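I have been asked to look over a protein record a colleague put together. Alongside the sequence sits a line of tokens, each denoting a local backbone shape. I have pasted the whole thing underneath without changing anything:
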Amino acid sequence: MTLRPVLVNIKAVDDTAVGRFWAEALGWSVSSAEPGATAVKPAGFDWLDPVGVCVDVIAVPEPRTATKNRVHLDLATASAAHQSELIARLRSLGATPVDVGQGEVPWTVLADPEGNEFCVLEPREVYRDTGPIAAVVIDCVDPRAMARFWGAATDWTLHEVSDDHATFRSPKGDGPYFEFLRTPGLKTVPDRVHLDLLRYPSDDQEAEAARLRALGATDLDVGQGDVPWRCLSDPEGHEFCVLARSS
């Protein structure tokens, strides 16, 4: 039994506007199968057999607080010129510069139209084949503990682990990296960004949830009610969902 990351779930008051922003930012298509949910995905993406991850923007009534998200996206660039052009284009789409204490760094920190932080990275060889999303980045206190939990929870391959960071990627070597960065301070409020995971067809939903609890996950009530997916949090409180399969 194991799971695959499949969606980066972003909460927004206006899912349509934020979904359009991310579609333009990533060069992906946008669709809405139901009110309050906007899907942003690359051409040919099959969420039941995913390569990499796509983005789902879900409407919520509450505006974002001033607290920095502990989950964010890093965007890849191919050259210094590409980085500059992408930053300019994103700002024209409604992104704004953000100071999260990064100081003088070669990347640029921006926020989407509802304040969700993300980074536009300088060109890095390691991200040359990831597509537009270089990495899904999660702040944490203990990267080694996160590596143990997420390494057992998912089928993604652990590439590197230290006291300061841990890095995973799909076993096929496709799509973005999944990175944990050692960051001071504990999680204090629910994030506006989280991961959704998908089980394999032969695995049982409730058995997977029980397995995750045994690894250190806890059940999470975010007012979801009676739904087919399971809301959980990892040992440091990062929210995630185990999606139900339609086939």
User: Anything to note?
Assistant: The longest strand covers residues 3-12. The mean pLDDT is 94. DSSP finds four helices and 16 strands in the chain.
